[in-house]
From TrEMBL:
It comes from Hydrococcus rivularis NIES-593. InterPro entries: DUF1499. PANTHER family: EXPRESSED PROTEIN, SLL1620 PROTEIN. The lineage of its organism: Bacteria, Bacillati, Cyanobacteriota, Cyanophyceae, Pleurocapsales. It comes from the Bacteria. This is DUF1499 domain-containing protein.
Length: 173
């Protein structure tokens, strides 16, 4: 085989790989559009350490893809939500707000606790988001953590801040 034939064969192989990768990407996008709520390879497994224990939500892992109002370190800390009504009313308002969010699924609910999963649109990564209303302090402790990966590019913090803004707006009305 001549050098020019090897070069053509190498180019054809590279072109075939690019076409295959493009086809896979288009199929993936088509599936995500057709079935936006379906689980993906990137959904991960639901943690078994969530919930409230002795007035505390689960601590954040050492990775930067989590925020919590109960965290002691600045990297993971975020302010809790505050409310003036009863804990039950605040949680009910928060539940209504979460139910309006795209790709959010309410998993557990009690009188003073909510747990929801939020899925990213294209890749289907899942974040676990918890809210615990502390009636005494009139605040809602929050925790939002990615199941997979190292960094979330600030998505968990942005989500909680967005929820805070919507929660506070609905309080003003």
């Amino acid at each position: 085989m001549s050098a020019s034939e090897r070069k053509v064969k190498s180019i054809n192989r590279s072109l075939l790989i690019v076409v295959l990768l493009l086809a896979i990407a288009l199929i993936w996008i088509g599936v995500r559009i057709a079935f936006p709520d379906s689980p993906t390879l990137f959904a991960g497994t639901r943690p078994d350490n969530l919930g409230v224990s002795s007035g505390k939500l689960a601590p954040c892992p050492s990775t930067p893809n989590c925020v919590s109002s109960q965290s002691a370190d600045i990297e993971h800390y975020i302010e809790p939500l505050t409310y003036q009504s009863s804990a039950t009313d605040a949680i009910a308002k928060l539940k209504n707000l979460i139910e309006t969010q795209q790709r959010a699924k309410l998993i557990a609910e009690t009188g003073n606790y909510l747990y929801a999963e939020f899925m990213t649109r294209w890749m289907g990564f899942v974040d676990d988001v918890e809210f615990y209303a502390n009636e005494e302090a009139k605040k809602i402790e929050v925790r939002s953590a990615s199941r997979l990966g190292e960094s979330d590019l600030g998505v968990n913090r942005q989500r909680i801040e967005s929820i805070r803004n919507l929660f506070n707006q609905s309080s003003d009305e």
